[in-house]
Amino acid sequence: MNYFDQISFGSDESIMNLLDNRRSALLTDIQKQIMFKRHVEIVNLELSYSCNRKCDYCPVSFSNRQSVQRFMDQTLLEKICHELAAVRYENRISLNLYNEPLMDLALESKIALIKRTLPYTHVAFNSNGDYLDSERLATLAESGLDAICVTLHPNANVIQSASSICRRVHKIVERLGCEHLFADFSVDDVTQSTNIEFSLRGVKIKVQWPDWRKSGTNRAGLLTEHVASSAIRTQPCVKPFREFTIFYDGTVQPCCESFLDDKTNLASAGSLQTLSIYDIYAGKMLSNFRKGLFDFGLKKGICASCTVADYSREEDDAERKRILQAL
């Protein structure tokens, strides 16, 4: 079911608040918190900056994120946790954006802080798996991590064969100490699926090998090679409604498809160094951003050629437009 299918458009005052930046100035702190808790399902929280790979279907390949490492300030992380705890946030927290989380040797202590403050959240992250083995999994499990998704990325400009993927799957399950679970895993299994899933030490693990050159997004039009990049977007998008994206320095972007590094000059929705999560979520920039993505029609800015899938029904467009006209 699509996110908006769960909402009664005409009777939901909260949707009006999400779209009208004039209302945000009139909302109380409690109203802003209620709005956030009601609609946000995923908090994307980037705890560090660097990645050790240069995948050609990722903007990291042409940024300084390969050579510079930085970390989210501990005081900032504590602020974020306490603000989320104020509304008893209990949904998902994803600890990655354009970084490799396992390069952070203090990752476990940060996960432990999050789980102490927000015990009912589902904490997970994506990884390339280069730094993952049974010992690291043990400390991650002890910290409270719920899940990890490992993607077997190929080297730049390399197409992985099924036999290569099969070897890599065997290698990583061996490093994790569970090779006995996949003793019969073969090339046929690689061609019939794009992932395997299992649990170890209470952590749900997914190892996947999709072809991101075919199924990946163009990162809001930033990538012009290797992935679909010629889209003209007319579909709505739910990401700025249901996700809240925080980069390592506290900068909030309207979408996880936005890429941030030292050379990228994107207008941010605000900084958590100076503002609260709720002020930013209910603020003018995100209200306008959501308003531009609510109905069908040509999109602007970083959304103009974005290839993120959406499953909104065109028959709902008249109702969407009616809501926008009522603002």
Structural overview:
Keywords: 4Fe-4S, Iron, Iron-sulfur, Metal-binding, S-adenosyl-L-methionine. With 327 residues, this protein is α/β, with parallel strands linked by helices. Helix content is 33%, strand content 12%. The chain has 13 helices and 9 strands. The protein has a 9-stranded mixed β-sheet. The radius of gyration is 20 Å and the shape is globular. It starts with 12 loop residues before the first helix and ends with a helix. The relative contact order is 0.16.
What structural keywords apply?
single chain; 327 residues; alpha/beta; 9-stranded mixed β-sheet; 9 strands; 12% strand; iron; metal ion binding
Q: Topology of this structure?
A:
Blueprint: H1 13-19, H2 21-24, H3 29-39, E1 42-45, H4 74-85, E2 92-94, H5 107-117, E3 122-127, H6 134-143, E4 147-151, H7 162-175, H8 187-192, E5 195-200, E6 203-208, H9 212-215, H10 239-242, E7 243-246, E8 251-253, E9 270-271, H11 277-281, H12 284-293, H13 317-326
Parallel strand pairs: 1-2, 1-7, 2-3, 3-4, 4-6
Antiparallel strand pairs: 5-6, 7-8, 8-9
Helix pairs in contact: 4-5, 5-6
Summarize the structure.
Its cofactor is [4Fe-4S] cluster. With 327 residues, the chain is an alpha/beta fold. The chain has helices at residues 13-19, 21-24, 29-39, 74-85, 107-117, 134-143, 162-175, 187-192, 212-215, 239-242, 277-281, 284-293, 317-326, and strands spanning 42-45, 92-94, 122-127, 147-151, 195-200, 203-208, 243-246, 251-253, 270-271.
